[in-house]
Design goal:
The protein has 259 residues and is an all-alpha fold. The chain is built from 9 helices and no strands.
Amino acid sequence: MDQCEAQRKAVRGFFQRNAYWLMVPITMTILVVLWGLWGLGGGQYFLDKLCKNDQECKILNQLASLGDVFGGVNALFAGLALAAVAISTDLARRAYTADRQWRRDEKYIEQIITSYKWAYSVLMDGKKDGPPKADRMNWSSCARHLLRAEKIFGSVVTPELNTILKEQREFWRHQFYLSLDYEVLKHAHYFSNIYRNNADPLDPTAALIVVQFSVWKDEIDPLFEVDAEALTKELTNSARISKAGLFEFIHEMKTTHPE
């Protein structure tokens, strides 16, 4: 079932991407067929209906001969005009769809960023630094905000806005990482609350969600796309910054960790 649905989506996507290219040959084919039918018998049929005697038929035939001189050109331009209208309509539809998707994605991003802020705020309970309070409600609410944000994340399809959203997620992921990077969180008693009277233990699922968000995802790292050798040469030719220590470090890394 999933494979059939994927095939149907692929077919629909093909026709949506190539709609105006398909309209041109289809329109021209219809015009050629109609033109052929008119020449094979359609014209004679209407002629027989219009003229009542030989004199009228003779006059109509003369006028028809004159019209035939321009008929082919007129039909050609009419077909081209129709094709142009079809292409313009499809391009306008695409532009409208893209604009609508852009505005929708902007709303999604706004809500995702807000959810990240809410999640961080409720986890830290108003504090600016230090380990978060081991409060079951705080951790659970934080996890819910993160789950909803990640659910909306998959709805952003505009490439440029998707890149902006990844930037925001990277920033907030690092904020969570800093807030959880404390010695107390390395011990089970922090999550179990056994040393706090009348305090419930943290929900294990909520704790997993929060901690997992602070960890780097298995994604393509932008750092892998950088040409380090070219960047080193560029810095070598720059005299604006002190870089002796950096170059010494790079040399040591190449010596101790050759690749």
